[in-house]
Hints:
The complex is a heterodimer of chains A (293) and B (340).
Chain A: H1 2-32, H2 39-55, H3 63-89, H4 96-118, E1 134-137, E2 140-143, H5 144-166, H6 168-178, H7 180-185, H8 190-215, H9 225-238, H10 243-263, H11 268-282
Helix pairs in contact in A: 1-5, 1-6, 1-8, 1-9, 1-10, 2-3, 2-4, 2-8, 3-8, 5-6, 6-8, 9-10, 10-11
Chain B: H1 7-20, H2 32-57, H3 66-81, H4 87-109, H5 114-134, E1 146-147, H6 163-186, H7 188-198, H8 200-205, H9 210-236, E2 238-239, H10 246-259, H11 265-286, H12 295-301, H13 304-318, H14 322-339
Helix pairs in contact in B: 2-6, 2-9, 2-10, 2-11, 3-4, 3-9, 4-9, 6-7, 6-9, 7-9, 10-11, 10-14
Amino acid sequence: xxxxxxxxxxxxxxxxxxxxxxxxxxxxxxxxxxxxxxxxxxxxxxxxxxxxxxxxxxxxxxxxxxxxxxxxxxxxxxxxxxxxxxxxxxxxxxxxxxxxxxxxxxxxxxxxxxxxxxxxxxxxxxxxxxxxxxxxxxxxxxxxxxxxxxxxxxxxxxxxxxxxxxxxxxxxxxxxxxxxxxxxxxxxxxxxxxxxxxxxxxxxxxxxxxxxxxxxxxxxxxxxxxxxxxxxxxxxxxxxxxxxxxxxxxxxxxxxxxxxxxxxxxxxxxxxxxxxxxxxxxxxxxxxxxxxx
Amino acid sequence: xxxxxxxxxxxxxxxxxxxxxxxxxxxxxxxxxxxxxxxxxxxxxxxxxxxxxxxxxxxxxxxxxxxxxxxxxxxxxxxxxxxxxxxxxxxxxxxxxxxxxxxxxxxxxxxxxxxxxxxxxxxxxxxxxxxxxxxxxxxxxxxxxxxxxxxxxxxxxxxxxxxxxxxxxxxxxxxxxxxxxxxxxxxxxxxxxxxxxxxxxxxxxxxxxxxxxxxxxxxxxxxxxxxxxxxxxxxxxxxxxxxxxxxxxxxxxxxxxxxxxxxxxxxxxxxxxxxxxxxxxxxxxxxxxxxxxxxxxxxxxxxxxxxxxxxxxxxxxxxxxxxxxxxxxxxxxxxxxxxx
Lengths: 293, 340
């Protein structure tokens, strides 16, 4: 039973990391139709800036210091995302394929810059000591960092929900995902919503970057690789443009992957792809996605 | 007509020169080193062309094309090393396997379109990459890949002195790929592919089965990619997981966009240029004079992805159509000026 709980919670923790990257991808795609390959670079930029802040504190950080590093990393990634949006994406308005291509270029350039400056070796991320302690839940010893991932993801989900539900810009974003042309026709400037979504997506990815570098024991320009692909899978399964859908799908995939890896060694990724194929065959619009007109 | 009237005779002359160069006494192409570089470049040119059939001609943005190339490499290598069949039959079987795989994956992923299709193919492609890395049944050799058993392929493909045979094989594979794709894109099915790219709804209204045509393009392109994979296996001498990486497909996309889609020769030039550029840039950064450049500039420049990525962003933003697109624009301007 305790192994079962351990694998389950580790899976949810992994799912939380997937959600942090998928939430931004999903909103950006839902609102603007942009397939954002640069999202992995947002994650890496956040990880490196967070690492820079944390390493100023020494080899070990206290919890407030770690949270500071996470927020600064998130803000840096958000601003970087905003810059990319303003500089490149807006100029290719409505040219979806070209927008996707440009983000591929951005991810190459960012990878080359970071790789050239810092090398591709892992650098230890200074974390609070208690991340290494184990918490007892139902007899299972859960590594404390998993709880941090889950808490962060839930906080971001709630924050995201509150923003979308209670603010004017959130209303515009929701309306834009539903029917962008109508919002435009009503004389509302959707461009501001675009920038907001890019900033928020970048922020979430940057925070995710810091957590991913804790999970993978260090920072390197290569950490984003598999997370971006899992992010895409989560977005497709959860439904494009649906943040709650991404949350459900991310948790599901995290848990399924961990269990499959435990009971059928190494088959986790394979099972996830099968799941993707099944969802596509039964519900091409994703779990919580709407059919597009 | 945008085609230059001498282009076909000149192409024939160029091909003849390329084919005969290894025999014509002392010239750069009589060096095994350059022959190997060019062989690999030809194969990338061919691969870019198979990708152009999907992306340029049919409008399918696939991010999983590496899967079919890697199938060609790995299935051939496994069949040869385990002494199942003779080498050329192993190659043919791998092409059939790749086409069958494309049929299955295509049938599932073509239920989506546009950007979703891109994500789904990416997921399938990565699944292949992961399976290769996991080394199931000890077949794929995991991270290290598998070395091709040299005793099981004809001796004229072995040893440095025989590099010219690999060079010819690669050139032949490129010409064959080009011929098939020419034939396909100029056929009536090719017209439907182009129509699907431009206006899918219209094709549907005309009563054609759009899924079937898309699947056809997907399978043809996969089979040709596997063929090039077979030759790549012989040229590289081993099957490595890097052939299945999503980075391969992204490189193909770069090649097609830089060279220019839908012109056939654009993709080939793009692939050859890209392949040579990445190998040459690595040589360049090994030189002593390069070490004098400060590390914060030199470090990133040593990564070919920086220059290629910047070039790529520039082409997408300011020069859509790439190299061949720019060429045709110039031709068009020259012709309209003459006729005025």
